[in-house]
Amino acid sequence: MKETSMKCAANVLLGIVLIGVMSEPVVAVEVSSFCRAQVPGKYIIEAQEGNWNWGMAPIYDEKGTLHVFNSIIPKNGSWIKHSKIAHYTADKPEGPYTFVEDTFSSDYASYHNPQVSKVGDTYVLVFLLNRHQDENGSKQEVGIATARSLNGPWTESPHNPIIRAAGTMQGANIVHASNPSFVPAPDGTYRIYYKSMTDRYSRKQAIREISLAVSREIEGPYENYAQNPLISYMDHKIDIEDPYAFYYKGMYYMIVEDRQGVKNMLESNPIPADQIQRGGYRPGLIYTSKGGIDWGIPEVGYQTNEIYFGATLARSERPHILWKDGKPECLFLACHDDDPTAGYFVRIENWEVKVNLEAREAEIQRRQPQARKRTPRQSKYLETGGERKLEVLYKQAAEKDLHLDLYYPTVNRTATCPVIVFTHGGGWAAGSRTKAANGSFGQIFQQLIKKGFAVAPVSYRLAKKESNVAMRDCVIDCKDAIRYLAKNAEDLGIDPTRFYVMGDSAGGHIAQMLLLASPESLPGDPALADVSYNMVAGLSWYGPCDFEKMSLFNHDDRPDFRDRFAPRLLGSDSGPQDKLTRYREMSPINYLTEKSPPLLMIQGDKDTTIPVKHAYYMDEKAKSLKAPVEIMIIKNAGHNWRKVDADIEPSREVIIERTVQFFVDHF
């Protein structure tokens, strides 16, 4: 299991202004005090053979025993038809957990995504209910059940489904109601916040929104709030889901999954529609409200599994709080990764609730003009003022066509100019070459184009879980991009003997592979075979150098550390017998020799995703071989140069300056 005691690393940014949830945002989204109070715990509740565990709804009983209700789906089945709600117990969040029983299981209905609460001496369980053999057909709706004991028996409400996929909302038909969160209100009523969808768009394009239903009785009947939905980004065609709502110290709170980049949109930096990974691949949001109706100011509510544990980025969803003595003790999150667990928890330590909505609104209004200037929209291409070749097709793979962009020097351009190839990060499964046009990379490449370099950001196939793409395919695609450029060098006006490379994270690994592995290694497109080229120098920002030595990824030397890279390294065309060969093949350090081109590795000393051990290990190997490797260690820096505990040293500006100078030194 994955475990650490490291604090949730996050920079406090500016506030945002949002009148309701439909108005135009103008500044960055803050990291909440709730998020800053989080301390990573561990992954828990392993699935039984042949099953898939999903999510966790935790609660203590009166004796202090921890009970967790979660969904179990057979791997050969579907959550829409075959999910059941199971019951586990433990003495503490870390476990071990004991399976008690299947609380709800049926051949005629799917019970999914539970949430558990207690009102007086009554336990309340709400859940997604899909009566797939009902006369009305398969519909996702909301059910509720009550019990005097967490061990049951549980009694379903005679009004089930208490929230139906029926009726109208804002002039459209309601076609979906699910993922409920039950909240006893201070006025004595009972609220259920839930995910809703209407037929305003087609089923495939339907937008998830957050709505509310209210009742004077726990078991219902419940009535939809007349002004639903409460939170919606339909105007931006972006959806949001998985609400967990609660009332605490005189305020309502709601934690939600940022499924399609709401934060990016609010910061006027939207993710291009064709690049959105749907699901909890981004930090979640937390909203606050005085009355539980107007949820106007979201903040970052929780981080990702990559940030908490240094694991490969996966979907973190279904937030639930474990309460103890009236205070939040832990946040439980489902995680859709290759780990056979229901998810993980993070502890909530010393959460200081400081909510002053009026003061925050006033400060936001004061900053509004400056904020507009500070939040430029995401660019797809570099604006250089010089010659550009965009969307150049360099390879037609079975999965997709692959493109690159080529930006020519605006100063000191020669008949055949040197080229810096850029390989983006994203865990080999996400990201885009458009990163080259934005942020620190945009600054770097704008400077290098003025110093005589051409720049070529490349796309490559992504090793997503559902695909047949492996890490080696990512590397091969990028090598083929260089082969294409070299083969067409005369027509493109570039020098095939002067290629450079740069990348970050997974792209940093690919950059190392392109630099150190010979041109003929890892052959790809037959049309690009036998193309020769020469690598001059390369730079890696926080990229790994060795997969065989898995201890390099164990940043805090945990005894229970596990390999998380097998699915992306092996792919569908290999098995366990190929593991060592593939791990060695994809380890840049194995290609390092005395005659290798110069490599600069810049790494953060507090990076838990790709630990600084990689830089030190590569440096050690280079010294033994007398190979030209240099390392630059950034103090207090996590992955992506996030500051941890203190400001990073040297600063991001110095990192950018050093990066540019490295290429200039090897021009």
Name a few traits of the molecule:
Tachylectin-2, Chain A; disordered N terminus; 667 residues; 2 domains; alpha+beta; 18% helix; eight-stranded mixed beta sheet; 13 helices; single chain; five-stranded antiparallel beta sheet; Rossmann fold
Strand fraction: 25-35%
CATH architecture of the largest domain: 5 Propeller
> Strand order, biggest sheet?
22-23-25-24-26-27-28-29
CATH top level assignment of the largest domain: Mainly Beta
Specify the number of helices. Answer: 13
Q: Which regions contain 5 or more consecutive residues with pLDDT less than 50?
A: 1-26, 366-376
Integer average pLDDT = 88
Oligomer: single chain
The strand count comes to 29
Query: What would you give as the CATH superfamily of the largest domain?
Result: Glycosyl hydrolase domain, family 43
| Computed Rg | 26 Å
Assign the structural class, choosing from mainly alpha, mainly beta, alpha/beta, alpha+beta, or little secondary structure: alpha+beta
Span between termini: 47 Å
The CATH topology of the largest domain comes to Tachylectin-2, Chain A
Report on the structure:
By secondary structure, the protein is an alpha+beta fold. It folds into 2 domains: 33-374, Tachylectin-2, Chain A, CATH 2.115.10; 388-665, Alpha/Beta hydrolase fold, catalytic domain (Rossmann fold). The strands form 6 sheets. It has an 8-stranded mixed β-sheet with strand order 22-23-25-24-26-27-28-29, sandwiched between helices. Strands 10-11-12-13-14 form a 5-stranded antiparallel β-sheet, with no helix packed on it. Residues 1-26 and 366-376 have low confidence and may be disordered.
